[in-house]
Amino acid sequence: MLHTFVVYVENKPGVLSRVVSLFRRRAFNIDSLTVGRTEKDDVSRMTIVTEADPDQARRIVANIYKLVNVLLVDDITGQPALLRDLSLIKVGATQETRSQVLDLAHVFKARVLDIATESITVELTGGEEKVDRFLELLNPYGLLEVVRTGIVAMRRGAKSPTVASKAELTPASAEQSDSVSHSV
Amino acid sequence: MGSEKQVLTGARILWECLEREGVKTVFGYPGGAILPAYDALQHSSIRHILVRHEQGATHMADGYARATGGVGVAVATSGPGATNMVTGIATAMLDSSPILCITGQVGSKLLGSDAFQETDITGVTLPITKHNYLVTRPEDIAPAVREALYVAKSGRPGPVLIDITKDAQQGSCEFDFERAAPKMRGYRPDLSPANDAYDKALAMIAAAKKPVILAGHGIAVSGAEREVQAFAERACIPVAMTLLGLGHMPASHVLNMGMMGMHGEAWVNKAIQEADLLLALGMRFDDRVTGNLKSYAPNAKKIHVEIDPAEINKNVKVDLALVGDLRKILLEMLPRVQPASRTEWIERIHQLKGDTAVRDIQNLPDNGHLYAAHVINDLWHETRGRDAIVVTDVGQHQMWEAQYYKHENPRSLITSGGLGTMGFALPAAVGAKVARPDAEVWVVAGDGGFQMTMAEMATIVQENVKVNIAIINNGFLGMVRQWQEFFYERNYEATPLLNPNFAMLAQAYGIKSQAVKHRADVVPAVRAARAHEGPVLIDFQVEQEDTVYPMVAAGAALHDMIRRPSPIVETAEDE
């Protein structure tokens, strides 16, 4: 099944390639990957969607944690969460079909960005399924160009995972212990 | 030390930092991009050992690390100097050996311009290092060095590389050792099991009738040699060793069965296949120890004690995992484990052992042929009871060493297990000897692998490193030949070797040497080598087409072993 991981990493050069290289090396398939800034200057956040069974997913988390620049990994699969995919879609639209395309865009709450004589370009944000369905309906009109960002995700509710900020750090020799239960 | 501040060049900060971290020796090879660092070496008390190839430097650092448990340090220049380190880094990665590689890099303004001797070495080594750093400013050198040493050593150890641009070495900045202490935000090497996992493990052990401990390299990494032995004794559990586990429990111990796996002892593999509980301690179920996973220990529940959570359920699905430091976990369990005697199971293992011992090539009368097993056995007899370290290469001799040299002490066998790097032995032995000058160090290498890094003979002479070199010379790439014999209809394509005269070659380097062709000459040669002050090479010219038995073919079940043909020993019954 598709797993969604939210990965917090130090905002340093080369971290993205470390994460991507890990997936390549361990032969885990990336379905989509997004990376961007967060509320903290020195923390970047990735959302990685990948095909994995539960045991593979656990090992993916363990492997990502082995990367020294990784701060936190949250497997939000099956958790109450907001998942959003943004897409730009250029669809063929002549005088005869333009209103039908606009109707569909209206129903899907897609924003119309550009209308030309032969095409309409819209922006749609939503869960992956919504975007999929929209594209399916537009297909008969001729999809000229489609780009999707891949999923960005956030857990619902007030509680968010905390990532230590730089100021709170003590030297690494002080032993920190994390309890891990691995009854399988 | 306080936090006195000085302004120093990046190059001087590098050595100063290493020195304060306790590094006494580095293995390296200079070149343009690392020259500022070499120039600054004059201010440091660190010993530099000049190698003949950067691969040698990495293996030496690795041997140093494995002999002591500390971090070994290798230094090279940019471009080809750095890429020559790749094999050594990959070797250290697969055997979880803590080494620090320091490479020079072209000036930061030239990065990405394909400048002379520029290679993206942090990119190249990304998948084979535990972590790596590209340092472009002198201010970043001290924090990178301290963090790198910490990362290399902690948790599951591994190789770390720091690539330092030439201008970062040349530039100056304030140096404050204390302030450069590692402060890491994400890295969490100290995991420990949940409390209920101990109870579950102890209950599973108490319920087991036929348990086996699988003992690996993690025992030495964790320093858990005594705890493993105490645990095995208290719970009365026979112990099977991985190749890298050998020595971490004395071979002579009554519960130590010996090596498991592809060339493990037959009775050990059979015991594993019959077991009802496997307690894996600091090992990772490599394909060379499991054989076919589908038929692996089918009746056994499995407990995996392992520091790296990513190893859990990777190859073998386990029933319970205790993730954390092995020694700490055993110390937690020791007072609570139920004493047991398991007489039936011990009896059964003796029974399994019975038929294998008589097939031993050691029992052959001297028929004029020199067998590798004889050489290894005599070497063991002569050096036993001493604090000898044997460093092996990769191939048949490595397996014979593992079978016939009975290791009593931890860290007394150093070998490339995971990567199987030919050419490892000679340079790794240099590292081991430099790390432990009091120890007697033997290289046991095949004629093939030895030739891959034999340029380091010059290093041992120039740096006056007393190692004894035993070449097990059968004129073949022996292990490959063995596979051709079994699986490719004896088509010995590209495996016969036309070798140089190793004894003369050694003499050309200024190394005392001799060739040995008869069994009776083995012991005198070993004794002469031990008595000689400087390095010695012995070219043991052994039987050409001898074979390592038993053997589990790749992909076969662990108990499905190719055995030594019975005519060799009349009493043996073949299966």
Structure description:
The complex is a heterodimer of chains A (184) and B (575). Chain A has 184 residues and is α+β, with helices and mostly antiparallel strands. Chain A folds into 2 domains: 2-79, Alpha-Beta Plaits, CATH 3.30.70; 82-153, ACT-like. Chain A, domain 2 (Alpha-Beta Plaits, 2-Layer Sandwich). In chain A, 24% of the residues lie in helices and 40% in strands. Chain A has a 4-stranded antiparallel sheet, covered by helices on one side. In chain A, strands 6-7-5-8 form a 4-stranded antiparallel sheet. In chain A, strand 6 and strand 7 form a beta hairpin. Mean pLDDT of chain A is 89; it is low at 173-184. Chain B is α/β, with parallel strands linked by helices. In chain B, 36% of the residues lie in helices and 18% in strands. In chain B, the strands form 5 sheets. Chain B has a 6-stranded parallel sheet with strand order 3-2-4-5-7-6, with helices on both faces. In chain B, strands 12-11-10-13-14-15 form a 6-stranded parallel sheet, sandwiched between helices. Chain B has a 6-stranded parallel sheet with strand order 17-16-18-19-21-20, sandwiched between helices. In chain B, strand 22 (551-552) and strand 23 (561-562) form a beta hairpin. In chain B, helix 3 (54-68) packs parallel to helix 5 and helix 16 crosses helix 23. Chain B is globular. The model of chain B is unreliable at 567-575 (pLDDT under 50). At the A-B interface, helix 1, helix 2, strand 4 and strand 9 of A face helix 7, strand 9, helix 9 and strand 15 of B.
